[in-house]
Every structure is written in structure tokens, then in C-alpha cells.
Specification:
92 residues, alpha+beta, S16 Ribosomal Protein, Chain: A, 5-stranded mixed β-sheet, 3 helices, 23% helix
């Protein structure tokens, strides 16, 4: 199973917020089913509101989940990126 950590868009028109989810890359559509929610991102607040469960993210990466470029750029703004970047699955 090809797992990916990506964003799922939620919210009203012109008022988005995103859930950071783990999903099967091949079966789930962009707004479809996901395996587990590991955080959220709200870009409209100043500063943007980012909450990430670092233990769950690290657990899924160890299981082979890949991180999309967008989620990687969001996670870089948090403290857990240093831990994640030491793992071999993520490029620096």
C-alpha cells in the first residue's frame, strides 16, 4: 500500500482550512477517505495556525508514508521537522 501524508481541504468557499491526513495514494481521491488525521493547518489566521501530532507523523513515516511537498513546507515551520529530516525517507 502506497501511503502519503497530504492535505485534505475543508471549510466554506473562500474560507479554507486543511487537515493533514494519511491516505492510500492509489485509492483515495483528494477529498476522499483517509486512514488517520495527524494534524491541521489554517492559513487564514495570522500567524497561520499549525497543529501536528509529531508522534503519529513519525510513526507513519517509519511505516513507509511519503510526505507531499506542500505538507513538507508546512511541517518545516514546526519544531518536529528537525527530527523528521534525520530520517532517510525525507530529503533535506
Amino acid at each position: 500500500m502506497a501511503l502519503v501524508i497530504r492535505l485534505k481541504r475543508m471549510g466554506k468557499t473562500k474560507a479554507p482550512f486543511y487537515r493533514i491526513v494519511v491516505a492510500d495514494e492509489r485509492r483515495a481521491a483528494k477529498g476522499g477517505k483517509y486512514i488517520e488525521e495527524v494534524g491541521y493547518y489554517s492559513p487564514l489566521k495570522e500567524p497561520p495556525d499549525i497543529k501536528v501530532n509529531s508522534e503519529k507523523v513519525l510513526e507513519w513515516i517509519k511505516k513507509g508514508a511519503k510526505i507531499t511537498e506542500t505538507v513538507k513546507s508546512i511541517i518545516k515551520k514546526t519544531d518536529i521537522y528537525k527530527t523528521i529530516s534525520k530520517m532517510k525517507n525525507i530529503e533535506k
